[in-house]
Amino acid sequence: MGLKQVTLQDVIPLRHIVLRPGRGIETCYFEGDEASTTRHFAWVEEDRVQSVATVMLSSRLINGESVPYQLRGMATDPNLAGQGIGSCFLQALHEEIDGSWWCNAREVAVRFYERNGLVRIGKPFDIPGIGPHYVMVYKKTAGSE
After folding, report:
1. Which parts of the chain are beta strand (E)?
2. Which of 51, 75, 81, 91 satisfies CB 3.0 to 4.6 Å to 43 for a cystine?
């Protein structure tokens, strides 16, 4: 099946397993999750959600340009790691999102995002209780569509 737009409740289980293990389920809900401009996506194969992410309208000024969208909560089923599912999902999101986007990438995920067309911006910063992150950006250009 591939890329599918889903509900907030569809993304919470993988967010919990991958991004907030050992924490309460309430930590898996992000500010903006229920905004009318927010969209939740999943990579689905054989009726199984394999990867999830949320795209929010959350403009950020990066190198003098406004980047309109933020990717949040990307997570892939750890049992499927190394199979290219996250990359397929992210490439499909590049095509789906009508514009450039940015994210706060965990330090351990920076190489994954770089391999998938994102560029690291600035120095690392810490999100308390989560760890080191980098701002990363994907610039949609005429050649990337």
Report:
1. 2-6, 39-45, 48-62, 65-76, 101-106, 119-127, 131-138
2. 51
Starting from the edge strand earliest in sequence, which strands make up the sheet with 65-76, in order?
A: 2-6, 39-45, 48-62, 65-76, 101-106, 131-138, 119-127
At 140 the pLDDT is: 77
pLDDT band at 145 (very low <50, low <70, confident <90, very high): very low
Q: Where are the domains of the chain?
A: 2-144
Residue 127 half-sphere exposure, CB side, CA atoms within 13 Å? 10
Phi/psi for 84 (5° steps) reads 85, 5
What global pTM score does this model have? Answer: 0.91
> What are 89-142's pLDDT values in tens digits?
999 999 999 889 999 999 999 999 999 999 999 999 999 888 999 999 998 765
Reply yes or no on domain 2-144 having CATH 3.40.630.30. yes
How many percent of the chain have pLDDT more than 90? 87
In 10 A of CB 14, how many CB atoms?
22
Bridge-based pairing of strands 65-76 and 101-106 is: parallel
